[in-house]
Automatic annotation (TrEMBL):
This is BAG family molecular chaperone regulator 5. It comes from Salvelinus namaycush (Lake trout). InterPro entries: BAG_chaperone_regulator, BAG_dom_sf, BAG_domain. Residues 30-107, 204-282, 330-371, 385-462 form the BAG domain. Keywords: Chaperone, Repeat. One of its GO terms (molecular function) is adenyl-nucleotide exchange factor activity. Gene3D superfamilies: BAG domain.
Length: 467
């Protein structure tokens, strides 16, 4: 049942499509009760249509209980054998049953369960890598493996299909925003390690160092909050703690010492980087955040993708007649445009932009290789192994042209054929023996990377990703 159809029910009268004037004639008591049911459906309908949780949640049980009670009340309406009342009662029951069915379908939908499983996997990952070391009195060491694992989970979440259902979009968006915030926190920790100054430097350094320790604890608390691993703290409480630390730092007298002043500034920046993630408790309640059909940033991205498609078509058409169309300056300007698109910390917009960038880069790399192949003038003494790499690159260029215009699915024969041919080129490169020639080693390494990028791009085109 589509959300649009459900929402169209709200406000639809039961009495054959014509709302009667209550002031002009006396209504039958049964019809009056059905009108009361209709008003309650109007109240519960939007709540059902945006509920994004699971069956074991309190809100689900409340909605199910109230809808079931309405259904019982509709069933108890005495129609006295009148056809008009029987029809109205039937329509009322159908609307309530539709809401109950929609509520259960979304809470048990395979995509909703996939979102929950990925969220739990992220919880386990963060608990082991960040929360538990901090609780044990140590310091969480953010490894590259942890950062990569979080990024992988984010990509898997973005690929969960929602079929346009608002509750599923909302659930996916809420899970993504929290995991992206965790990613930002842990990557920020690895990027900027503010080192404490010696307490002999200035009288204020001791207190700044103490604040640094509190900030380190707050970082782990924030990660635990974002991932639902903290039963005691709240975002509001942690926000107050961090704000108080800012006030205390601001009150410190560090005049006359540039090193201490800069140290305090770094600590303040770390606190502010944590505070920006503490507004997520109500995140996802605004449908504009996850229903992106009319989002301005998405429109900009789609406009760029449309232009890239046009340029790609021209490039392939010219290549088909042995010519080389070179729109690289415009493609570079499109990359700049994409870089300036405001993602508003929205992971779905961020992923849409990332994929659009890859589409532009694929055309640029295709042009670069084609130009290199056309301009190539091998010397008579060129090593045979180096020539073999270029032969493979020529085949890869032809295959990339097919990949660029591929619009099929993963199960299509054309996809499997392209995948097989690209894999054969990788095997051909693996068989090339550089025989100690450094130029051949570099060329083969670049060709392998190029082939792998084509395979990844082909895979991205078939994953049926949605906003």
């Amino acid at each position: 049942m589509a959300v649009r159809w459900l929402c169209s029910l709200f406000g639809k009268p039961f009495n054959g499509g014509k709302r009667m004037d209550h002031g002009s004639q006396q209504q039958h008591p049964a019809m009056n009760r059905l009108y009361e049911v209709q008003r309650e459906v109007q109240s519960l309908g939007p709540q059902v249509c945006t509920f994004s949780g699971l069956k074991n949640e309190r809100e689900y049980r409340r909605l199910e209980r109230e809808l079931t009670q309405l259904l019982l009340e509709v069933d108890q309406v005495d129609t006295e054998g009148r056809a008009d009342l029987q029809g109205a009662r039937k329509r009322a029951a159908q609307e309530v049953e539709g809401l109950l069915r929609y509520l259960e379908e979304n809470a048990t939908h395979p995509s909703r369960l996939a979102i929950e499983e990925l969220s739990r996997e992220a919880q386990r990952l963060v608990e082991q890598g960040v929360v538990e070391p901090q609780q044990a009195g140590g310091t969480a060491e953010i490894s590259d493996e942890l950062v990569d694992a979080v990024q992988e989970l984010i990509l898997r979440l973005t690929q969960v299909k929602t079929g346009g259902r608002v509750p599923l979009r909302k659930a996916r968006y809420r899970a993504l925003t929290r995991l992206c915030a965790v990613q930002d926190v842990i990557e920020g920790r690895t990027r900027q390690q503010t080192l404490p100054l010696s307490e002999d430097t200035h009288v204020a350094v001791q207190r700044i160092n103490q604040v640094m320790v509190q900030v380190s604890v707050a970082r782990s608390q924030l990660v635990a909050l974002l991932m639902g691993l903290s039963g005691r703290d709240s975002c509001a409480h942690l926000s107050r703690v961090l704000t108080e630390l800012l006030v205390e730092l601001d009150a410190l007298d560090v005049s006359g010492n540039a090193a201490v002043r800069n140290y305090r500034k770094q600590v303040v920046e770390e606190i502010n980087s944590l505070l920006k993630h503490l507004d997520l408790e109500g995140e996802g309640d605004d449908t504009r955040r996850y229903d992106l059909g009319q989002n301005d940033s998405i429109r900009q991205i789609e406009a760029v993708r449309g232009r890239v498609g046009q340029l790609q078509g021209e490039v392939l058409r010219h290549c088909g007649v042995g010519d080389l169309f070179r729109p690289k300056p415009e493609l570079q300007s499109l990359l700049t445009h994409l870089d300036q698109v405001d993602t508003a910390r929205n992971p779905c917009i961020r992923e849409a932009r990332r994929r659009a960038v890859l589409e532009v880069q694929a055309v640029i790399t295709f042009l670069d290789l084609r130009e290199a192949l056309i301009c190539r003038q091998p010397s008579p003494n060129e090593p045979s192994q180096h020539r073999a790499v270029w032969i493979v690159l020529g085949s890869l260029s032809d295959l990339q042209a097919q990949v660029l215009c591929f619009n099929g699915k993963h199960a299509d024969k054309s996809y499997m054929l392209l995948e097989e041919l690209l894999t054969k080129q990788l095997l051909a490169l693996d068989a090339v023996d550089p025989q100690g020639d450094e130029m051949t080693k570099v060329a083969r390494k670049q060709a392998v990377k190029f082939a792998q990028n084509i395979l990844s791009f082909l895979d991205m085109k078939t994953d049926e990703w949605e906003y």
